[in-house]
Amino acid sequence: MKKTYLILLAIFISCVTIAQKQDSLHIRKVFDIALTEGHAYENLRSLCKDVGARLSGSPEADKAVQWAKELLESYEFDTVWLMPVKVPHWVRGTIEEAGVNGKAMNIKTLGGSVSSNGKIEAEIIEVQDFKELKDLGEEKVKGKIVFFNRPMQKALINTGEAYGGCVNQRWAGASQASLYGAVGVFVRSMSDHKDKHAHTGSMGYDEGVKKIPSVALSIEDADMLSALLQSNPNAKGYLNVNSETLPDKVSYNVIAEIRGNVEADKIITFGGHLDSWDVGEGAHDDGAGVVHSIEALRIIKATGYQPRYTLRCVLFMNEENGNNGGKTYAAVAKEKGEVHVAALESDAGGFVPRGFTIDGNNEQLKQMQAWEYLLEPYNLHIFKKGWGGVDIGPLKEQLVPLIGLRPDGQRYFDHHHSDTDVFENVHKRELELGAASFAAMIFLVDKYGLGHTLEIQPIVD
Amino acid sequence: MKKTYLILLAIFISCVTIAQKQDSLHIRKVFDIALTEGHAYENLRSLCKDVGARLSGSPEADKAVQWAKELLESYEFDTVWLMPVKVPHWVRGTIEEAGVNGKAMNIKTLGGSVSSNGKIEAEIIEVQDFKELKDLGEEKVKGKIVFFNRPMQKALINTGEAYGGCVNQRWAGASQASLYGAVGVFVRSMSDHKDKHAHTGSMGYDEGVKKIPSVALSIEDADMLSALLQSNPNAKGYLNVNSETLPDKVSYNVIAEIRGNVEADKIITFGGHLDSWDVGEGAHDDGAGVVHSIEALRIIKATGYQPRYTLRCVLFMNEENGNNGGKTYAAVAKEKGEVHVAALESDAGGFVPRGFTIDGNNEQLKQMQAWEYLLEPYNLHIFKKGWGGVDIGPLKEQLVPLIGLRPDGQRYFDHHHSDTDVFENVHKRELELGAASFAAMIFLVDKYGLGHTLEIQPIVD
Fold first, then answer.
1. Cβ(B369)–Cβ(B452) under 8 Å?
2. What is the mean pLDDT of residues B165-179?
3. pTM for the full model?
4. What pLDDT sits at residue B327?
5. Could you tell me the maximum CA-CA distance found in chain B, to the nearest angstrom?
6. Which of A31, A35, A411 sits opposite B427 (nearest CB)?
7. Which CATH class is domain A25-89+247-453?
8. Which residues of chain A make contact with B381, given a CB cutoff of 8 A?
9. Any idea where the domains of chain A sit in the sequence?
10. Which chain A positions have a beta carbon within 8 Å of B284's beta carbon?
């Protein structure tokens, strides 16, 4: 009896060892393909240079949809299709000027901002946050341009956290300032990199407030303005932008699939967003995520792996100013009764990958952590709870575990939403390692599932 | 009795918890200073722009010694002094030309190479390694320029390993080719980055061989040449360099100390190398290590921490072509009977830090790994055996545990020894995080020692 037990144990251990060895070899193959015959870098070059910046509603966004569809079709996946998405259509104006005491500053109108309807001239009042604004009140604010100047906290190691700590100025600054009679808003760019490039991004207006224009200043100009206001509190600012919001348009999520071999009706979705801001080339945000996702599906196919579940690469439209692609995707999935094993996103740049975060339960976390030994040889060390991604976020309601690829974030906000988010600022190997890491994680999720909702039962590849 | 035991246990656990909490707060302080009031970036700017490239023996190396001494003195450490080091004095020529079929290529003469004594013209024979060279033999090689073109292996995750896999072509290619009667050597640059910049580096001649000149080709030119030789095996190469080796000179290791509070006669040495190649600005190699080391000592002082051991920052001279600074340092330490607790080095660039490797015994490794929980919040994950550093290497004979800072290596060889190793290619926060990580490790080594040769006994800071 004891002998039988020992034999069974030995067989079990052998099976596990063989499976681990197979996994290890398979992941090595994934990285080999990405690093020695990768397409990610050339695809990113093409997206950045042949298409360029691609804000929802723009002709370039239409071109990006076509670009992605044709590229995915060229790889001969099982299916490629377009999912219609209604998107907003905001357009940066032909006029974009602001300054102080007659001296021009480098600015970008924030996405969603109204036109200034001609040149506004007014005194400028600097505040660090909404509390300070409120304390100043209408008496001090009325008729002025409010300058939100709270910087990203340098001491935070996680730059995303530093961004989160000041982005409310960009999103809600205009609505808040408008409450007290301000006529316009200057916002310090959401960046920790001192240069001349202003960083755009989305903003919105609360219901019922008077809409006033809002623009981002470059970090150099924000520092200059703050210093100037110290010595000259009555300095006169000006602001002239003629951005506008046109009627909504129809655009598309671009989707490609490899059908599952065992449970084709269950889906692993992974993607990035195809739209970008209308400045730079959307290289890190989120050209990198787009080519990571395409490359992951291409590599998985190239390895000859037969997926258990259906692997679905989704290039979402409109993450930047509405997330209508993500919302539509989740709504369609719900309507069709689709079952998602997991959703993964790459939307944090094309930098060297550090690991993954999971927005899921403890069991799912534990399952992801069980793969650490397979990924540590590729310098992937972060396996913890955290952010999935904006596009896949709406799937959370359907209890889908969400996984985010975590590239190193130190340089991300140097370029984010600015003229410098271009192909030249993406490093080939860093991008390729991201694609391989993404592919490796998709492979593991497919092979083993994610925690208790699914069997943890390796299938032979 | 049992009660007494439990009370003692509770006291012990409390003490350990308090010490851990103190360590955690202290390390947070180190990172705060580096990121919010750091000097590393400005110091690196000054070293790169006010001093520039600084090959051993050059006037710029003299200037660097002066620069470092004055900077260290300005921080008012306990002692600053210069340790004389005899260094070689190789000088790149005023003529540096090579090409094929009359078309110029981008080259750098390798450090140590002899002059070509006028223009050499000869057919070119491409080989991948010394075995292939030997198989061709004198018959095929004599009178020709040998072109060593084995690339860095892209599939290797560790770029240092990829470098190690082909650097023998650079170091020994000329001696090997000379054995079979070659008249000159072209070497593919030790880089994986396709651009027009050739990468220099050290080479040497075996005793007795006829010395022939050796130059590095840019990756673009190496690929071009290889393709050309496919279609035109008789293509004619040319080579004209007039580099020379002058008599040895005296230079210096620049050293600063904070004296230990408990055991001042035991030393923790940490540093980088002050010399660089004579191209670019030696920003990553090893300006970063220089400013990491200075900043680490400055930060440790700024935190008010009283070190147990003497903390010694050593800016070594002549790592690039001789390592005479490292050898002299170890010889002097031996002669004086100095006891080193550990030696640490930063010589892998100013990129985002990933952790540390230790060249020591298992107990020392275990001790270093015990601190991982304190450093993981700063995204430091690598704590394993490995390389210490070239400069500290000669201390190994004295059984000193050697620790190397491990920044991310993906971009390192893009710039290494080339015109692009300039200040602009170093990222402020990445550099600062490196300095803080280095300081944190020095603090921990000082507070707890490293394994069995020393007591593991926290002292209150």
1. no
2. 98
3. 0.95
4. 98
5. 93
6. A411
7. alpha beta
8. 381-382
9. 25-89+247-453, 93-242
10. none
